[in-house]
Amino acid sequence: MSDLPLLLIDVDGVISLFGFDETPVAPAVTFTLIDGSPHMIAPEAGSRIQRLCRAFEPVWATGWEERANDRLPEVIGVGPLPVIHFGGIDRFSNAHWKLAGIDRFAGDRPLAWIDDSFDVSCFEWSKRREAAGIATLLVPTDPSIGIEEAHVNAMEIWAEDLRAASRTL
After folding, report:
1. Distant-in-sequence contacts of 136-142, Cβ < 8 A, 24+ apart
2. Cβ partners under 8 Å of residue 36, min gap 6
3. pTM, full prediction
């Protein structure tokens, strides 16, 4: 287990883009087939996530689960990575469907989670973790843009602040 904070990475809306008014063309996206379905991959997603791997322990936090390791490593140059399993989770419960799986996987480790579909329960969960002294950063993305340079910069600063705080203890 690493001393680095976890980086929980969603795929759809972070790496694989959707929700456009008009379908973008290359080089705005890279088109690829995954499991026979076309995906529009954010062209800078791989290099941005690779940068974050210096400050974080990356983990797939996606409904793709193990399938993220089947194709994404060759598409974006990241992985294979550990996977959070959400099997059997009711995606329509009162809480965000990923929270229970993330809690089981992360425990009390600090984490940054980048995703395009946070809801109120995610922010409440984050506040509870923070109140318990567990550093937690939620990084929302626009699903038609995905991970941006500003996201990476904010997460790098957050991780550095976390390291600095642990050195002063």
Report:
1. 136/110, 136/111, 136/112, 137/111, 137/112, 137/113, 138/112, 138/113, 139/112, 139/113, 139/114, 139/115, 140/115, 140/116, 141/13, 141/14, 141/114, 141/115, 141/116, 142/13, 142/19, 142/116
2. none
3. 0.92
Condensed to tens digits (0 to 9), the pLDDT of residues 26-85 reads: 566 788 888 888 899 988 999 999 999 999 999 999 989 999 998 889 889 998 999 999
Kindly tell me if the per-residue pLDDT of 141 is higher than 70.
yes
| One-letter amino acid for residue 128 of the chain | R
Residue 121 near residue 99, CB atoms below 8 Å: yes
Tell me whether the omega of the peptide bond preceding residue 27 falls within 30 degrees of 0, making it cis: yes
